[in-house]
């Protein structure tokens, strides 16, 4: 482990300074032979990190935490979490490190964080490591989400460690370098609250306000305003997931941010055929985090956040609870408003179509998609052409032609705007069969398919010749897709 000046970056340690009780200074495990697999050059540039330098041997050591810039204090963060409903008081970064915070040229403070960087005091029984496949998976899916306009942590790079990671078999190891507006989670508040130290809780809340929800600072009830801001951010985020057909897969409270960014891509995946009950994760046997349960899961997590904040809402506990309940009660209407507005955009409906009409149109469509096992992304994208007069693409996806023709007639009467629809209905998403194909090639040493997939999904709305297979639904024999946690 060497400490050397890094020419291009300063890493601040505001989190560690302000919230030392939630940070354990720690070092990444040594990686003798790091090899860069993928680098996000535009993101590197945004951070003020020279891509050429990151591609150098020094840069690779920086990206696995072995070259620490002078003045930086890498830490493992402490947090708690409800995992599938059960409270675990001490989770924390078991295999991750916050290297520090980068302040961009335009003044944004961003966490630079490593995953797979070795055991920490929070590792419990885990080995602290990560495999190439899951880290590349996070890279592809988080960058696709960003390109879709969905708030998310970003992926800067994946570096192979050259070391084996023992899972069911021995897999090649990797470290993911990721960037987030912060790594504050609902679980961070649960941890602070569980210490019983209200001063710490208040400092954490103030840190979150400064960093993410500065509007709350001037509100008469600043902590209630913080809670309301998190409700607003999360209701909008989950509505976007639902509109995109995204299933997070492990919405534990330690995997829900205060900023409203999607975080911790483990067993996540996008819907192929539309089915509200879809679950991909091998460990979610009960379907707690099924596609259609995501809004409820988010609301449940926000109730857990409210519990931690009660001592800050008011002196009197009864009054605190009343304030929390009232605020939480607005989650559903906010979520419904965000989702309905998004669906109207997906269907290209003009503003003068009334809500009842739009709702019935959407409900009829979703029932039709479900009954006919229709590919969700392809259908909505195809509707853009249907709005312009060519409905063959969407008709080709539906078995019950009488039903789809009836629906199309009803919908076309509203004169939907096909061009506007093409700006919100992606043509390329990280389809499960393509992700699997790209990851297995990468693990076998061929990064070509991964690069092509990243190119397709990071410009998701621009249809390009030659990329037809990236727009096509999964082959018939690709059913029952199962994902595994990012271990
Ligand atoms: P996750 O399911 O990835 O959100 O992780 C839940 C908790 O398990 C977090 O505290 C992680 O740091 C920890 N964890 C997951 N995998 C490992 C691992 N291989 N080694 C150590 N800790 C891990
Ligand atoms: Mg996590």
Which terms would index this structure?
single chain, 487 residues, alpha+beta, 5-stranded antiparallel sheet, binds adenosine monophosphate, binds magnesium ion
Notes on the structure:
By secondary structure, this protein is of the alpha+beta class. Among the domains are: 2-180, no CATH class; 349-416, no CATH class. Helices cover 43% and strands 13% of the residues. It is built from 19 helices and 13 strands. The protein has a 5-stranded antiparallel beta sheet with strand order 3-10-11-9-8, with helices on both faces. The chain has a two-stranded parallel ribbon with strand order 1-4. A hairpin with a 3-residue loop joins strand 10 (154-166) and strand 11. Helix 6 runs antiparallel to helix 7, helix 6 (186-194) packs parallel to helix 9 and helix 17 (432-443) packs antiparallel against helix 18 (448-457). Bound molecules: adenosine monophosphate and magnesium ion (MG). Residues 254-255, 264 line the site of magnesium ion.
In brief, what are we looking at here?
Among the domains are: 2-180, no CATH class; 349-416, no CATH class. Helices cover 43% and strands 13% of the residues. The protein has helices at residues 14-18, 41-46, 51-54, 57-63, 132-147, 186-194, 198-212, 222-244, 294-313, 317-328, 330-346, 355-371, 376-387, 392-395, 401-412, 418-422, 432-443, 448-457, 468-471, and strands at residues 2-3, 23-25, 35-39, 67-68, 75-77, 81-83, 86-88, 96-103, 109-115, 154-166, 170-180, 246-247, 269-270.
Tally of individual helices: 19
Note the overall shape.
globular
Number of strands: 13
What percent of the residues sit in helical stretches (DSSP H or I)? 40-55%
Segments where pLDDT lies below 50 for 5+ residues?
none
């Amino acid at each position: 482990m060497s400490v050397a000046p890094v020419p291009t970056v300063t890493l601040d340690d505001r989190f560690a300074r302000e919230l030392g009780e939630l940070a354990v200074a720690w070092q990444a495990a040594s990686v003798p032979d790091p090899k860069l697999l993928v680098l996000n050059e535009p993101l590197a540039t945004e951070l003020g990190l020279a891509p050429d330098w990151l591609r150098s041997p020094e840069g690779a050591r920086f990206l696995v935490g072995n070259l620490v810039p002078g003045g930086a204090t890498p830490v493992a963060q402490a947090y708690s979490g409800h995992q599938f409903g059960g409270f675990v008081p001490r989770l924390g970064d078991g295999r991750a490190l916050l290297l520090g915070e980068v302040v961009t040229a335009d003044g944004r403070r961003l966490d630079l964080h490593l995953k797979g960087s070795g055991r920490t005091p929070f590792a419990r029984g885990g080995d602290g490591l990560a495999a190439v496949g899951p880290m590349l998976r996070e890279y592809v899916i988080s960058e696709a989400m960003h390109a879709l306009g969905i708030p998310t942590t970003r992926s800067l790079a994946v570096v192979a460690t050259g070391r084996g990671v023992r899972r069911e078999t021995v897999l090649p190891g990797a470290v993911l370098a990721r960037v987030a507006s912060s790594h504050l989670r609902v679980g961070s508040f649960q941890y602070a609250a569980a210490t019983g130290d209200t001063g710490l809780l208040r400092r954490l809340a103030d840190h979150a306000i400064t960093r993410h929800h500065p509007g709350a600072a001037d509100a008469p009830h600043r902590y209630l305003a913080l809670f309301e801001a998190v409700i607003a951010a999360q209701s909008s985020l989950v509505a976007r997931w639902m509109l995109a057909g995204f299933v997070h897969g492990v919405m534990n409270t330690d995997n829900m941010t205060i900023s409203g960014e999607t975080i911790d891509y483990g067993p996540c995946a996008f819907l192929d055929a539309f089915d509200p009950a879809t679950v991909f994760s091998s460990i979610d046997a009960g379907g707690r985090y099924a596609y259609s349960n995501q809004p409820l899961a988010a609301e449940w997590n926000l109730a857990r956040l409210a519990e931690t904040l009660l001592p800050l809402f008011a002196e009197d506990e009864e009054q605190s609870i009343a304030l929390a309940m009232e605020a939480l009660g607005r989650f559903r209407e906010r979520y419904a408003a965000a989702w309905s507005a998004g669906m109207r955009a997906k269907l290209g409906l003009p503003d003068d179509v009334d809500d009842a009409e739009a709702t019935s149109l959407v409900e009829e469509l979703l029932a039709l998609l479900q009954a006919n096992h229709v590919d969700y992304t392809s259908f909505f994208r195809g509707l853009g052409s249907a709005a312009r007069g060519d409905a063959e693409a969407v008709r080709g996806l539906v078995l019950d032609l009488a039903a789809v023709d009836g629906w199309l007639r009803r919908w076309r009467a509203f004169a939907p705007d096909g061009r506007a629809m093409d700006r919100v209905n992606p043509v390329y998403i990280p389809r499960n069969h393509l992700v699997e194909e790209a990851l297995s090639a990468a693990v076998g040493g061929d990064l070509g398919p991964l690069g092509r997939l990243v190119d397709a999904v990071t410009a998701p709305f621009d249809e390009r010749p030659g990329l037809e297979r990236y727009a096509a639904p999964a082959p018939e024999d690709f059913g029952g897709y199962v994902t595994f946690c990012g271990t």
